[in-house]
Amino acid sequence: MRKLESPIIRSTHEATRTIILPKKTINFRLTIICMAAASVGLSMVIISISKLLLLICGMATLLFAQRAPEAGKPLAGMRTPVAVLVTISAFTLSLLWTVAPQADALGSVAKYGKLLVIVLMMVLIRDRREAMYALGSFVVAQLFLVASSWMLFAHLPVPWATSNMALTEYAVFSSYLDQGIISAVFAAICWHLRGLAPGRFGRHFAIFLALISLGNVFFVLSGRSGHAVAIALLSIAIMWELPKRYRAVVVFLPFLLALVLFFSSTKVRERFTLVKTEVQSYSTQVQPTTSSGVRLDLWRRAIQVMTQHPIAGSGVGSWSTEYNRLEREQNPAHKDIDGNGNPHQEYLLWGAQLGIPGILLIGLLMYSVLKDAMGMEKPYARATQSALLALAVACLFNSSIYDAQIGDFFCVLIGLLLALGFRKPASQGMPTPQHEQAT
Q1: Is residue 20 a part of any domain in this protein?
Q2: Radius of gyration of the chain (CA)
Q3: What residue numbers bound the domain in which 405 lies?
Q4: What's the pLDDT at 132?
Q5: Which residues 6+ apart lie within 8 Å of 168 measured at CB?
Q6: How many domains does the chain have?
Q7: The pTM is what?
Q8: Is residue 13 domain-resident?
Q9: Rounded CA separation 155/149 (Å)
């Protein structure tokens, strides 16, 4: 006969399982996920190590999918993974006709390979509880980054700051350009997901983090791209807080905020004034030397490349080769730029490499993220849409997917936010905001 189990023993076993389950959840896979989420606020070395471990973990998950079916379960109905795979396939296919040297072409394919991180984060994160652990790691690292920048601004010792702009521009690990964009996005994440912050004062602390991050962008860092991204994110956040009948005011909000910041922030005023001066002087210079002038010249060349190869582009990694060719036609004494360069504009970079289909492809990628985000609960949707808007704005002035540090930041964060919004809560439950559909 089967021995009957007493209610006391049975309840003890159930309690034991309840205690052990969280410990089993914090495993090597989750550690790598949290490390990847935290790394995008730190140095490039840590980011590279985290990406490598994430790739190894993803391969292991694929190999052992039969043993753990839930690990490799496809995210049915989601558009982003398909768009990522189509994008990487398109760049890989263009190896057949690229005019770039093989090293440049393969190097560029590897750079776009970081888009796989979006899919890896979505697949490896199995439930919302794990996504919350990763989000917590991300927040801690970003708080460390913002606090370090404020310490540099206050002329306090920050021995871990490795940026060559640390003492002059108060950037900790990267350039002030990248850090300004990163901190602006972090502020938006803190605001939209403030309801997830644990503790009695968690919500207030999240709002405080958003404020000090925005203050860091507008009053400490000098990056004009960061200012533009922060203004865009602040505008859409205000719009979402307004009643629907007043949301049309978002058309005027960016200009109003820019005007207010122009008179209240020395950093913003100086950088905006500098843009005006640089653009005005561009047409009078034989060789542009200012930041805005160089960008305008690179954009002009990128458009030339795209118009000469409108159907299929000049191939992956071909930007430097084509730029050097066009410059030599005008000036035989031109000194070639290094390979794997970019025109500091993501849309034109894709157009130069893949032609008009390249611009449509980057649009498809962003549209896929947007459509997936619209199917999530409102706070998660708004956080994801804010990160996407930041990427779209940043790509107007920089190659923010192609570039290493900022590109890794967006790929990790978008993958994390999509996983956070789509994965179901674990059995133990995590704090979740109200279940409202995004509008």
Answers
A1: no
A2: 24
A3: 28-422
A4: 95
A5: none
A6: 1
A7: 0.86
A8: no
A9: 10
| Distance, CA of 12 to CA of 25 (rounded, Å) | 20
Tokens linked to 415: 């993958």
* Alpha carbons 423 and 122: distance in angstroms, whole number: 9
Tokens describing residue 324: 């050097």
| The two structure tokens encoding residue 311 | 């159907």
Judge residue 181's burial from the number of C-beta atoms within 10 Å of its C-beta, 0-12 exposed, 13-18 middle, 19 or more buried: buried
Structure tokens at 190: 């803190």
Q: Using H for helix, E for strand and C for coil, what is the string for the chain?
A: CCCCCCHHHHHHHHHHHHHHHHHHHCCHHHHHHHHHHHHCCCCHHHHHHHHHHHHHHHHHHHHCCCCCHHHHCCCCCCCHHHHHHHHHHHHHHHHHCCCCCHHHHHHHHHHHHHHHHHHHHHHHCCCHHHHHHHHHHHHHHHHHHHHHHHHHHCCCCCCCCCCCCHHHHCCCCCCHHHHHHHHHHHHHHHHHCHHHCCCCCHHHHHHHHHHHHHHHHHHCCCCHHHHHHHHHHHHHHHHHHCCHHHHHHHHCHHHHHHHHHHHHCHHHHHHHHHHHHHHHHHCCCCCCCCHHHHHHHHHHHHHHHHHHCCCCCCCCCCHHHHHHHHHHHHCCCCCCCCCCCCCCCHHHHHHHHHCHHHHHHHHHHHHHHHHHHHCCEHHHHHHHHHHHHHHHHHCCCCCCCCCHHHHHHHHHHHHHHHHHHHCCCCCCCCCCCCCCECC
| 10 belongs to a structural domain | no
> Which of 240, 184, 215 lies closest to 406, judged by CA?
184
308 within 8 A of 352, measured Cβ to Cβ: no
Asked whether residue 2 is domain-assigned, the answer is no
pLDDT tens for the 439 residues of the chain, in order: 444 444 444 444 443 333 333 444 458 889 999 999 999 988 889 999 999 999 988 888 777 755 445 544 546 789 999 999 999 999 999 999 999 999 999 999 999 999 999 999 999 998 899 999 999 999 999 999 999 999 999 999 999 999 888 888 899 998 888 999 999 999 999 999 999 998 889 999 999 999 999 999 999 998 888 999 999 999 999 999 888 777 777 777 777 877 777 777 777 776 667 665 656 555 555 556 566 777 888 999 999 999 999 999 999 999 999 999 998 888 888 888 888 889 999 999 999 999 999 999 999 999 999 999 999 999 999 999 999 999 999 999 999 999 989 999 999 999 999 999 988 776 544 454 544 444 4
